[in-house]
Design brief:
Largest sheet: 7 strands, mixed
CATH superfamily of the largest domain: Type I PLP-dependent aspartate aminotransferase-like (Major domain)
Distance between the termini: 40 Å
CATH architecture of the largest domain: 3-Layer(aba) Sandwich
Oligomer: single chain
Number of helices: 13
Bound molecules: pyridoxal-5'-phosphate
CATH class of the largest domain: Alpha Beta
Number of domains: 2
Structural class: alpha/beta
CATH topology of the largest domain: Aspartate Aminotransferase, domain 2
Length: 394
């Protein structure tokens, strides 16, 4: 079999010419056993890296017991998974999905339902420039990139986009129909940008004052990536709804939206939402194992301790190469923006040749999403390889 045969795949992805075969810790190995240091984590998913024995055993033993039940029955893992996520987020009630995009769809429905119960039909959303919330028709409506949306219009009505970190521009967009404001606590795909503390607090105040729903999309920046369970914690606020996915399952396809007490009491009701697979025994075993490992391996502490080291390495690269315009990020979610003298795609492929996997984002930016278990030696190695590549393209 030619593993690169795409003749029966819908061609929505331009894949790298690498066939990955196995993973171990922070490393991936291709079909020729070439080793890659993975600073992309499967786009922010594999927080625990690869081949974590506790995680693997939890899944294996669950497979031998029960994989699926549907949501018509209870099973042994869902109550614990919901409790884990409610505790970590400080919110109340969880609906499990199978992906991030589905978590966004659910969050949108909960927000609209909350508004509907107050007599607002067709509640409208405020989202932000450079946002990314997913590719289904609802989530795509909240995503800023015009080219992603154009062929699929009409999308949902009444979504307005405004400047990130600019509360005045948000206030200008409010209407009687506004039901929710949605933001990534740290923007990812559109370029790494951190929501400033004051901005987040102002959004919180605004939503409280106008009885709007504040939705935090922490699909990429959540579950420890920022050094806290959720990046909104840095702003000392809580959203009304949280969307989570990616590292929540650390490789198993899970997502969730979580409602606070207020929205939980007065939005989605019996029969309002559903998912055949969401919250199945295997998915919840994965989520529970992730939370166990976060605690036993002190994952948040690791990210907190190593963040300054990662930031220093990236800052010193910025100081050495004038085509690096800036570094921005939080915890293990960092970005370097390049000017047009270099092309980030070239840098990515040269890094791959040298055994380092990174990601692109934004206009011409490199994105760093190392596994949350990475150690100082891995950061040093990443920086060494990247510096060698930057010298080549200089
Ligand atoms: N929201 C954010 C912030 C994301 O980064 C992503 C995926 O990259 C999504 C939503 C969509 O999640 P998924 O691809 O799991 O559907």
């Amino acid at each position: 079999m030619n593993y690169k045969d795409e003749s029966h795949l819908i061609g929505t992805y331009k894949k790298f010419q690498i066939v990955l075969k196995r993973g171990d810790g922070v490393y991936l190995f291709d079909e020729n056993d070439k080793k890659y240091l993975d600073f992309s984590s499967g786009i922010g998913v594999c927080g625990l890296g690869y081949n974590n024995i506790y995680f693997n055993n939890a899944l294996k033993s669950q497979i031998d017991k029960l994989i699926h039940t549907s949501n018509l029955y209870y099973h042994e893992n869902i109550a614990m998974a919901a409790t884990n996520l409610a505790k970590a987020s400080g919110l109340k009630s969880v609906f499990f999905t199978n992906s991030g995009t589905e978590a966004i769809e659910g969050a949108m429905k909960a927000a609209r339902r909350y508004a509907y119960n107050k007599g607002i039909k067709g509640g409208e959303f405020i989202a932000f420039e450079n946002s990314f919330h997913g590719r289904t028709l609802g989530a795509l409506s909240l995503t800023a990139t015009k080219t992603y949306k154009k062929p699929f219009k009409p999308l949902i009505k009444g979504v307005k986009f405004t400047k990130f970190n600019d509360i005045k521009s948000v206030k200008k967009l409010l209407s009687k129909k506004t039901c929710a404001i949605i933001l990534e606590s740290v923007q990812g795909e559109g370029g790494i940008r951190v929501a400033q503390k004051e901005f987040y607090q102002d959004l919180r105040k605004l939503c409280d004052k106008k009885d709007l729903v504040l939705i935090a999309d922490e699909i990429q920046c959540g579950m420890g990536r920022s050094g806290k369970f959720f990046a909104f914690e840095y702003a000392d606020i809580r959203p009304d709804i949280l969307a989570s996915a990616k590292a929540l399952g650390c490789g198993l396809s899970v997502g969730a939206f979580v409602l606070n007490e207020r929205i939980s009491k007065d939005s989605l009701m019996l029969g309002d939402h559903g998912s055949t697979y969401g919250g199945n025994p295997l998915a919840c075993a994965a989520i529970n194992a992730v939370f166990d490992i976060f605690s036993s391996e002190n994952i948040l502490k690791n990210v907190q301790v190593l963040t300054p080291i990662l930031e220093n390495k990236l800052d010193s690269l910025k100081a050495k190469f004038s085509f690096i315009k800036s570094r921005q990020g939080l915890g293990f979610m960092q970005g370097l923006s390049f000017d047009n003298r270099v092309n980030v795609s070239d840098i990515l492929s040269k890094c791959q040749e040298k055994g380092l996997l990174l990601l692109k984002c934004g206009q011409n930016d490199l994105r760093f999403l190392p596994p949350l278990i990475s150690k100082e030696e891995h950061i040093n190695k990443m920086s060494e390889i990247l510096e060698a590549v930057l010298r080549e393209v200089e």
